[in-house]
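Course assignment 3, question 2. Fill in each field.
Student: A.L.
Task: Predict the tertiary structure for the chain below.
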Amino acid sequence: MLPTQKKTCATHSNNQGFTLLESLFSLLIVIIIASFIPLIFQSYQSILKASDIDKNYEWQVFINQISKELNTSKQLAISENSITFISSDKVITYEKYQNMLRRSVDNKGHEPLLTNIKQSIWTKLNDQQLLYTIIFEDDQELTARFQINQERS
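Answer field:
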């Protein structure tokens, strides 16, 4: 009978590299993260569009408010940065304050009407027309013309 020999194998453990499975898993994670990038840009664009809609909405509300004040006031005082409507029971002033246009009634408190503005200019063109020009911080310029009744000064 022959003596039994034991076979011994030396196993060498190599933990320095990546296996194919680990590489595929890492690639899968990168692809999943990269797939969200277009969604992020799309949501950013929709936020910008919504803020532009808000600016246009503010502008339309402001124009309606000024038209109402012109129709109900008895007197009108205009300077370059402010306009004052004087009626029988109250004094309403619209003025630029920091980066907004605000409305105050009888010099008590204020209500912001337009925000993110850089420049605000009131101009009385003649006895019948009032021009308002506003420049926003993003350099967008808007202009509105208002008709003034003859009995106002």
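Instructor remarks: Residues 128 and 148 are 5 Å apart (CA to CA). The helical segments are 20-35, 37-72.
Grade: pending
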